Amino acid sequence: MPLKIDGRVYYRTAEVCQVVGIGKSTLFRWIRQRIIRDAEYRDRKGWRLFTEEELRHLKWETNRMQTNRVAEI
């Protein structure tokens, strides 16, 4: 369930992965490889909190990669 903090909506890593349809290991690999930027915000435990804008960008990136993969096949 997304968090609301100061009127903004944030998504945790597991929620982002579920919505986008990728695994956590894929997300973390893309962050390490700088395919996507790391989450700008973290909670008090240090866990990533993604904004709706970051979630939209991740969806776009996932669709772009899937399109490229289909073109290769």
Would you give an account of this structure?
The protein has 73 residues and is α+β, with helices and mostly antiparallel strands. The chain has helices at residues 13-20, 24-32, 52-72; strands spanning 3-5, 8-12, 41-42, 48-51. Strands 1-2-4-3 form a four-stranded antiparallel sheet. A hairpin with a 5-residue loop joins strand 3 and strand 4. The termini are far apart. The model has no long low-confidence stretch (mean pLDDT 90).
Order of helices and strands: EEHHEEH
* Biggest sheet layout: 4 strands, antiparallel
Helix content: 40-55%
- Uncertain segments of ≥5 residues (pLDDT<50)? none
Distance between the termini: 36 Å
Strand order of the largest sheet: 1-2-4-3
Number of helices: 3
Shape: globular
Topology at a glance:
Elements: E1 3-5, E2 8-12, H1 13-20, H2 24-32, E3 41-42, E4 48-51, H3 52-72
Antiparallel strand pairs: 1-2, 2-4, 3-4
Q: Which key terms come to mind for this protein?
A:
73 residues, alpha+beta, four-stranded antiparallel β-sheet, globular
Concise synopsis of the structure shown:
The chain is 52% helix and 19% strand. It has 73 residues and is of the alpha+beta class.
